[in-house]
Fold this protein.
Amino acid sequence: MSVQTSIRDMFFEESEELLEALVEGLARMNAGAHDDETVNAVFRAVHSIKGGAGAFKLTALVAFAHRFETVLDEMRGHRIAIDPEILQTLQRSADHLTDLVEDARTESDANAGQTAGYLVALDACLGGTPQPEPDENFSFSALSLDLSDLAMPEEVPGQYFTITLRPHAGLYSNGHDPALLIATLADLGEIEVEADLSCLPDLAHYDPAKPNLAWTIRLTSEVDALAVSEVFEFVEGLCDLTITRDVVEAALAADPEMGEFAEDMPIAEGDEPVELNEVSRPPLSASRDDTPEAAGTGEKSGGPKPTLRVDLDRVDRLINAVGELIINQSMIAQRVQELRLATDADVVTHVEDYRLLARDIQEAVMAIRAQPVKPLFQRMSRIVREAAESTGKLARLVTHGEGSEVDKTLVERLADPLTHMIRNAVDHGLESREGRIAAGKDPCGTIHLSAAHRSGAVIITIRDDGAGLNRRKILEIAKKKNLVSADAELSDTEIDALLFMPGFSTAATVSNLSGRGVGLDVVRNAVTALGGRVTITSTPGQGTEFAISLPLTLAVLDGMVVSVAGQVMVIPITAILETIRPGDNELHIVGTSDKLLSIRGKFIPMVDVAQGLGFTRPPGHPEPRTLLLVETENQGQCALIVDRVFDQRQVVIKGLNTNYGAVPGVSAATVLGDGQIALILDPDAIANNRVLPGSDPRSTVKMKEGKNLAVA
């Protein structure tokens, strides 16, 4: 990979961070934060994208960003009033700017007609007067590493700047190069460069990771100090930098006879040295905290935290190695346990220390892949706007818990399910403007999107304040489509579960958002593939909530090790509510074989795991009495029948799809401490009887008032 390509890739990576900052700033403005700092943050994001794009001659991106920046500049100068219509234009422009960045990344042609429409909208914010294109005011040059053309001709009158640059180690580790900065300065005017070699050590003490060089650059240019400082906006906090404008020398260059008055010449306001390390603009390649709480503390963070970009494949290899380490630790612990040593024996103590250390290493490595759901949530704001425009409704998105961290793979694979559910909430959940007004609601509907950690899992909820589910209509459509029998009598929970059946749709007509029979089964399949589940809660007239429960990581899980018909298996601990050994008076038989557990005034269906997986117990095997009460997606609570519970432990997840294929009722496998392979069960699939030979997923045992039983 060439240096130019590497820098280009870095630009797009930093553009993603800038676009996140842009979306976040516009969200704060839309919430009423019209202060100068918020507007400046939005302006800086667009300006930085424009500057980086200009270095690579991304003409379409530069032109649009320039017009966008012009509107923001007028706003921060208080020459344009901020109103809802302008904010809507800015949000749509931010969406289009994201598209242009993606087009530039993939080297695709931008939609010129669409861009022209957004430019007209931006011009309307400026009073309807078409603005000049950026190349009429300034031009960019592509980055070059060739510094042979930096020899300066004779000095000409202009402003003089003296720049001192001493890089930190972080400047190089973030992929920056002083040569590129100097080359960019050369585009602004005439420069003289002097390298400071005074800090170079002898070869015996040379440390290649420690920067030893510094540079003094003298620039003669007609640009202002802001233009010079913008050259270094990508490296703020990564170097010691001073920019001084030399007014006296500039005057002498224009008129040498003024030398005798130099000592009496006053320094104009703003001519003092500019220390960029104190500028409040956030660095691009470093971690930053843009929360209002952080801004209000008044404490200096001490500079940006150093970051390191690592190939994801290397992280995956490290995670696999840690997984093998955990398996190895389990094997050693198993062997030591078989020796039946005293609990205070040195070997037992060392093995326990080994276990704790392995877990700490595993958690630290998993934290490397963890990332907040904030970027994913920010993308949903655009989905809400587009869905609202398509349906003619008014809708806004409110997010909570954006800082919750989950595995990077989960974030990537959640994008499509969340997009589908957000569109569904706007299209089906929210009423029309007229309907909301008639119901005494705000004409603008609200979609709440939140994330929170709970019991070793992350819970993502999508809640709308619409009319709620029309369960009567849902059941009628299901019967019409022959998804359930005509005489079926289903509970609210089972009617809600019909939404996840393939081919189910409540849309009367086909539109851009719905009506093609691609229902929420796509969402359920995607979430189930991630080891999670989806539940629905709906109140008529108040709205509907979808809750997605997912493991924090796809690499390891805490599970309960059980025995089923002589086979050792693992059930995820997040699905288990409690273990039960019922008495005879708590067990009830329905029909010829169906069983119910009576617990705390409720009847819970019982599912024999061995039977569900097709295992047969040997003759004379005692009837198992160990139950695991689990929470499932469609059936609610149910009791899984197992032979024995061994213990709870952390296991490494090994997928089956790649080397074997999908197994009904089984989500993955693991290796236990004795080297035995154990299957990791899927409680939802087993509870729904999907794995029973010849079973019909539409057949469910119904209970009315806790007494009469019927089969639907």
Notes: The chain has five domains: 3-136, 148-282, 312-371, 373-551, 556-711.
